[in-house]
Design goal:
It holds the Pfam family TMEM214. Residues 1-67, 86-138 are annotated as: Disordered. Residues 1-11 have a biased composition (Acidic residues). Residues 108-123 have a biased composition (Basic and acidic residues). With 602 residues, the chain is mainly alpha-helical. It is built from 30 helices and six strands. The strands form three sheets. The protein has a two-stranded antiparallel ribbon with strand order 1-4. A two-stranded antiparallel sheet has the order 2-3. Helix 11 runs antiparallel to helix 12 (267-280). The radius of gyration is 50 Å and the shape is elongated. The N and C termini lie far apart (156 Å).
Length: 602
């Protein structure tokens, strides 16, 4: 690299003709070798042109090109920066400038804050004051409802949504929502009421405040809606209530003590509309009972008061059958659960006590024990009821006495039905199965009631003996208890057991089968030998009593068979002949059959 020379200036201006130079104390840097003349050989190679001139000429061209490129780049960069500034101005509503102009972050933030404050102040000045809705009580708001206006509204809604009954019902609820919008949660604190009030006080809430003509207009309109749509409305209304309940519970946990929940202007309207639907169309509830029973979102102790209130609406207007059916199918299992708390148990008992307190309850419920093919208290629910009413002495609670008070009538309903019908035979067999099982669980109080139920099932349907024969060994202790009680109470049950020759023969065959099982177990020396011996004694007594009455029975049976045989021969009807053979088989009169037929033919 060429050595660098420096020339000092004295810092004063130097005048040379028209040129003026001001150095201000700076030094000029020069390269000595570049100022030297090129060698002759260099000049020759350059065609007689000095190297200095060539370098200058080439240098001018090179630097001019570089300067042009640099200028282009500078223009492009400047244009890009200007475009970026425009974009930032568009994106920033507060009009803050970009740092391209050198503003600091603090200055930009200060301008933005000032701009926001000015805008908020402007909004506050322009925002009109919200008018407060006057608070009114439920009776006051309900009294202002015009029945004729309601009727006109419902007619219009029915015509506008003729093919959409679900929307019609939503419009129905919306009408009461607007009519009762002034009733706040303070005026209708339903969560507190349901938690602190007894069922007798809650049944008529809130319909007790609705004018009679308004209720009648609504009920007549509801009666024309399909049950399926009404069932859907019941679930929708229940969901709305549970949503409000969750809001109250959430506010109670995280909010300040004593803080009020925001008013739910439509909650009272939901309760009004739901109560009207349930009272006018009880089947709307029965249609959704499986959903309420199986869907997890409807489970829980906190939801129970609303469910009980819904069932009370159904039974309060005289439809006791639907009320008891709902109670047995959906609430009895809750009581049977070990996790059921005393408050829930009390509430469930209040409902059934309210239903049974009706003077006509026994006649209505016993005669209507089966509603539309469904039993009010089916066998599985009856089993739960028996267990609850007859617990072990150590498991008794305050509610046990109340269950004992309602049990007799509920038992009568559970055992009611058309004797001899196919459906009733199936019911008796189911009842006999669980009764035999309960009789052997080691609870003396429960065993006593269970054996009584098992004997009832046998006397009601002698075919239970066949089932008993299959369950005998598995339920030996219970079978011993049933046989012993049957012997002790023979006078009370012999009339039914001997009501027909076929029933007597069936029971007699069952006793013979038991004796064979007993003899086999005793001979083999099984562990339960003493129980088999005790059972065998009872079987002998029952067989003997059946045999003593068989003489008269057989005479009657032979007479009947003679008449039947004559009819079969004379008519040559295959059906009559088949019936005759069935009679012979059931009464074990095979030795008399052929001689009688031969005599009649001759």
């Amino acid at each position: 690299m060429d050595p660098i020379e420096s020339i000092d200036y004295d810092g004063f201006e130097t005048f040379n003709g028209n040129n003026t130079h001001v150095d201000h104390g700076w030094k000029k840097v020069v390269y000595p070798k570049r100022n030297r003349k090129q060698k002759p050989t260099d000049q020759a190679s350059n065609g007689g042109v000095s190297g200095k001139n060539v370098n200058v000429a080439n240098g001018d061209n090179v630097f001019r090109s570089l300067e042009e490129q640099a200028e282009d780049r500078r223009k492009r960069i400047l244009a890009a920066k200007m475009a970026a500034v425009d974009v930032e101005d568009d994106d920033e509503p507060n009009g803050s400038r970009s740092n391209v102009y050198g503003d600091s972050d603090d200055e930009i933030a200060a301008r933005n804050e000032k701009k926001k404050a000015e805008e908020e102040e402007t909004k506050k000045k322009k925002k009109p004051k919200k008018e407060k809705t006057p608070k009114v009580s439920l009776p006051e708001a309900a009294a202002k409802i015009d029945p004729s206006n309601l009727e006109a509204f419902l007619i219009e809604a029915s015509e506008a949504y003729a093919s959409q009954p679900d929307i019609q019902l939503m419009r129905f609820a919306d009408y009461f929502g607007r009519a009762l919008s002034g009733v706040s949660s303070v005026q209708f604190p339903w969560v507190k009421m349901f938690k602190e009030s007894s069922l007798s006080k809650l049944i008529d809430v809130p319909l007790s405040h609705i004018p009679e003509l308004v209720y009648k207009t609504s009920a007549d309109w509801i009666n024309q809606r399909p049950v399926e749509a009404l069932g859907g409305f019941v679930l929708w209304a229940f969901d709305c209530i549970l949503t409000d309940l969750a809001a109250h519970q959430g506010g109670g946990k995280g909010g300040k003590k004593g803080a009020q929940q925001p008013p739910s202007k439509s909650q009272v309207a939901i309760f009004v509309a739901l109560a009207m639907v349930l009272r006018r169309k009880p089947d709307a509830l029965t249609n959704v009972l499986p959903t309420l029973r199986e869907n997890s979102k409807y489970q829980g102790q906190d939801k129970l008061p609303v469910i009980v209130w819904m069932m009370a609406q159904v039974s309060s207007q005289g439809d006791l059958s639907v009320g008891l059916l709902s109670w047995a199918h959906n609430l009895l299992p809750v009581v049977g659960n070990k996790n059921c708390n005393p408050q829930s148990r009390d509430l469930i008992l209040q409902l059934v006590e309210k239903i049974l307190s009706n003077p006509k309850a026994r006649a209505i419920l016993v005669n209507g024990a089966v509603r539309k093919g469904e039993r009010l208290i089916p066998p599985p629910m009856f089993e739960i009821l028996v267990r609850i009413t007859f617990p072990a002495s150590s498991a008794r609670v305050k509610a046990t006495e109340r269950f004992e008070a309602v049990y007799p009538l509920l038992k009568e309903v559970a055992l009611a039905g058309a004797p001899g019908s196919k459906a009733m035979k199936q019911v008796t067999q189911q009842i006999f199965t669980f009764a035999l099982r309960l009789a052997g669980e080691g609870n003396p109080v429960l065993a006593k009631e269970a054996t009584a139920i098992a004997i009832w099932a046998v006397t009601e349907n002698v075919d239970c003996c066949k089932q008993w024969d299959n369950l005998y060994k598995e339920n030996l202790e219970a079978s011993v208890a049933v046989l012993k009680r049957l012997v002790d109470e023979w006078k009370d049950h012999s009339v039914k057991l001997s009501s027909s020759p076929s029933d007597t023969a069936t029971l007699n065959r069952t006793m013979k089968s038991f004796r064979l099982k007993n003899e086999e177990a005793i001979t083999e020396g099984r562990a339960n030998g003493s129980l088999y011996k005790e059972a065998d004694k009872s079987c002998k007594v029952i067989s003997g009593r059946l045999s003593r009455g068989s003489g008269c029975l057989k005479g009657t049976a032979i007479t009947v068979m003679v008449i039947a045989a004559a009819a079969a021969v004379l008519s040559s009807n295959p059906e009559v002949t088949a019936e005759l053979k069935n009679l012979v088989d059931s009464l074990e009169l095979h030795q008399y059959y052929n001689p009688i037929i031969t005599a009649i033919k001759n």
